[in-house]
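Anyone up for a design puzzle?
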């Protein structure tokens, strides 16, 4: 278990609180990441305002970030400790019919078909003051460490500047996709 700082939203409509949290080790098929950089997206603000009907509080927001793999659970072969990575708020298992379709970025293992507040095994890796703290979009980048499923992490070039590439997790890809695919710019 790692103790670190995180921004915790204890309730909708309340300000974030910097807290010491405990981050459990990764289970099979999971990756624990030391987050180096995070972005702030309007989606995080919408969570704090209570706009996500299935979100549960308390929660650690954040869904775009970049970091270094600290440890991996049993069976993880896609990344190893020391790898630079970007957590993905839209998983890509690479095996389901949607991932294999070049017209889609919706994975069947996505949190959209699962509750977004717990990991796929229906548990959390965060606790604070003896209370369970929920995940946000399985990512929770407003913490110094996080645990996510291995199919929600992308290994990146070792020379990549983490403070810049953190935006690839949501902000850049969403904006680029909207301009190219929707607005046809």
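Challenge accepted. My sequence:
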């Amino acid at each position: 278990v790692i103790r670190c700082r995180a921004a915790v939203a204890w309730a909708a409509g309340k300000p974030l609180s910097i807290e010491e949290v405990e981050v459990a080790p990764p289970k099979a098929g999971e990756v624990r990441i030391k987050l180096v950089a995070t972005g702030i997206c309007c989606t995080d603000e919408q969570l704090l305002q209570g706009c996500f009907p299935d979100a549960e509080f308390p929660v650690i927001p954040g869904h775009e970030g970049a970091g270094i793999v600290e440890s991996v659970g049993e069976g993880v072969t896609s990344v190893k400790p020391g790898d630079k990575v970007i957590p993905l708020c839209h998983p890509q298992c690479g095996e389901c019919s949607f991932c294999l379709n070049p017209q889609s970025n919706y994975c069947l293992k996505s949190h959209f078909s699962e509750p977004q507040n717990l990991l796929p095994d229906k548990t959390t890796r965060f606790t604070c003051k003896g209370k369970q703290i929920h995940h946000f979009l399985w990512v929770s980048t407003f913490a110094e460490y996080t645990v996510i499923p291995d199919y929600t992490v992308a290994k990146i070039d070792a020379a990549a500047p983490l403070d810049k590439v953190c935006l690839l997790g949501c902000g850049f890809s969403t904006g680029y996709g909207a301009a190219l695919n929707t607005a046809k710019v």
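A detail worth pointing out: The CA atoms of residues 40 and 77 lie 30 Å apart.
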